[in-house]
Amino acid sequence: MSDAAIQIPENRRLDAIDRKILTVLQEDASLSVAEIGDRVGLSSTPCWKRIQRLEADGVILRRVALVDQNKIGLGISVFVSVESADHSEAWLRKFADAVSAMPEVMEFYRMAGDVDYMLRVVVADMQAYDVFYKKLISAVPLKNVTSRFAMEKIKSVTALPVPAA
Amino acid sequence: MSDAAIQIPENRRLDAIDRKILTVLQEDASLSVAEIGDRVGLSSTPCWKRIQRLEADGVILRRVALVDQNKIGLGISVFVSVESADHSEAWLRKFADAVSAMPEVMEFYRMAGDVDYMLRVVVADMQAYDVFYKKLISAVPLKNVTSRFAMEKIKSVTALPVPAA
DNA sequence: GGTGAAAATTTCGAAGG
DNA sequence: CCTTCGAAATTTTCACC
User: Fold this and answer.
1) CATH 3.40.50.620 fits A3-56, yes or no
2) Would you call B32 exposed, middle or buried from its count of C-beta atoms within 10 A (0-12, 13-18, 19+)?
3) Could you tell me which residues are beta bridge partners of residue B117?
4) How distant is the Cα of A70 from the closest Cα of chain B, in angstroms?
């Protein structure tokens, strides 16, 4: 069992080609391996192997389709700031589980500073937001909840800026 | 030229199968068309045609790979609230262009209420955040900028909850 | 709209430098 | 770690219901 302790390093060193592959795939994951290879200066087999490795190592988490929010009737984005009344471990777990299970919640972070949690929520309309809000405040006791509504989405990307080194 | 005015409706009506396809593809876009067809109760040709149509209509915007932020050394997420000093059209355009061009900015919304803009920013470390912050405040005049730092990412998804109808 | 099968591409892996 | 080559799988098109 001693070998079980040997772990893949949390941050595998990525070379310049891996970083290029990540940049390309974050923009367009529908390209063929050969096409990606061309763009990063590799033939298809080594390019394919690198992609497999990036997936196996969890650098690439998944491949997904991005959908236009407005075209499916989800017109409202809301940033919600939450201050908690209770800072116990049990409270946090209950809150985290309840909020994570809500499909309207796209992002959910525990914060430093004056605000304890930040959420980005997407809903169809104000009525749907009201339903969400009531669900949120009835899940666990909260001290303060502030909802800020987006008027215009100016930029929204999923592609992280891959650092040069 | 009269036909040029005929437009595809902004919100094409999506039936239950289209919605299922979107739900599946938002979770895993690496599935084969045949596999997606199985899950939504279609053989591969009609399933393929529907996917093509959803792409042509812009319901599906693109297919991308999602990358683990921490595995590429981007450890810090920051929510930035901005109040503007100037509400002219020219100021807005300059601000929108400058901020949109910054690769650290993942999301950027114009808001209703006390905060004028909300940004979600991703950087490697505090030094990188400082670089970003200076870039931001030097781009255009701002009245107030508040940075809130995330301690823990509890949930982050790209899959929108496709409404039942 | 849907079916089923053929044609065109792409993925994946073996053999080797 | 890369290259070439080929089998297997998948995507895409086509004729027909």
Assistant:
1) no
2) exposed
3) B82, B110
4) 8
Fold classification of A70-149 is Alpha-Beta Plaits (3.30.70)
> Which class for B16: exposed (0-12), middle (13-18), buried (19 or more C-beta within 10 A)?
exposed
Same fold, B3-56 and B70-149: no
Q: Which residue of A64, A70, A110 is in closest CB contact with B26? A: A64
Averaged pLDDT of chain A: 92
Residues in chain B closer than 8 A to A122 (CB atoms): 160-161
Residues, CB < 7 Å to strand D: A 17, 42-46, 49-50; B 31-34, 44-45, 48-49
pLDDT 10s digits, A100-110: 999 999 999 99
D12 C1' to B129 CA distance, Å: 47
The residue extents of the domains of chain A are 3-56, 70-149
Q: Do A107 and B100 touch (CB under 8 A)?
A: no
Amino acid in position A33: V
Mean pLDDT, to the nearest integer, of B36-46? 93
Q: Is the confidence at residue A1, as pLDDT, over 60?
A: no
- Nearest C-alpha neighbor of A51 from the set A65, A78, A31: A31
Question: What pLDDT, on the 0 to 100 scale, is given for residue B30?
Answer: 94
Dihedrals φ, ψ of B50, to 5°?
Answer: -65, -40
CA of B79: which chain A residue's CA is closest?
A118
Q: Mapping DSSP to helix (H, G, I), strand (E, B) and coil, where does residue A84 land?
A: strand
